[in-house]
Design goal:
Blueprint: H1 6-20, H2 25-100, H3 125-129, H4 138-144, H5 147-153, H6 162-169, H7 173-180
């Protein structure tokens, strides 16, 4: 860039004073200052735009990398799920083959998976989650969950009123007084 010291600026100012004249010099100085300010703003805008484009290109590259990685993970998961599905189907087929080869004289009914021939209804998971109009039924869903699962998750199996809960967790009367004395 051009190196302008105080001596060079003073020389330029003196020449401008002689050439332009003292009455028009302030107006010209304001115009030159405005033009220099516009040029600086334009240059800074161009620099900012270039840096935004560079960042945008970097973000696009990162996005494509993430998308390819996500696709690879998705394909791996689908492959594993399909393999497990096939293995489960093979095992189920083996169990069905073993059950169909079983003699019917042992009291086990092979037509029912639960061994009862009375045709008892066992609700499916979907049936336990839907009510008669197709919406989810909370009560049916909660009733379909096994007790061991409720205990493991910390789900309350009985309803307790707020007053009973307060009474259960309130300290004994004598314990509170002796603590503060």
């Amino acid at each position: 860039m051009i190196d302008l010291g105080i001596s060079k600026l003073a020389l330029i100012g003196a020449v401008a004073l002689i050439v332009i004249g003292p009455e028009r010099l302030p107006k010209v100085a304001r115009t030159v200052g405005a033009l220099v300010g516009r040029a600086q703003r334009y240059i800074s805008d161009v620099k900012a735009e270039v840096s935004r484009e560079v960042e945008l290109d970097e973000l696009r590259k990162m996005r494509t990398e993430f998308e390819t990685a996500a696709r690879d993970v998705e394909q791996t998961i689908h492959k594993e799920v399909n393999d497990l599905n096939q293995e489960v189907k093979d095992q189920a087929q083996a169990v069905n083959d073993a059950l169909s080869g079983n003699a019917s004289g042992d009291g086990f009914d092979s037509s029912s998976p639960f061994g009862n021939s009375d045709g008892g209804f066992v609700p499916s998971w979907d049936a336990a989650h839907k009510s008669h109009n197709g919406r989810k039924s909370w009560r049916v869903k909660q009733g379909a969950r096994p007790v061991w699962f409720k205990r493991q998750q910390g789900t309350r199996t009985w309803v307790q009123s707020g007053a009973a809960r307060v009474k259960r967790h309130r300290p004994a009367r004598g314990a509170a007084r002796s603590f503060f004395e």
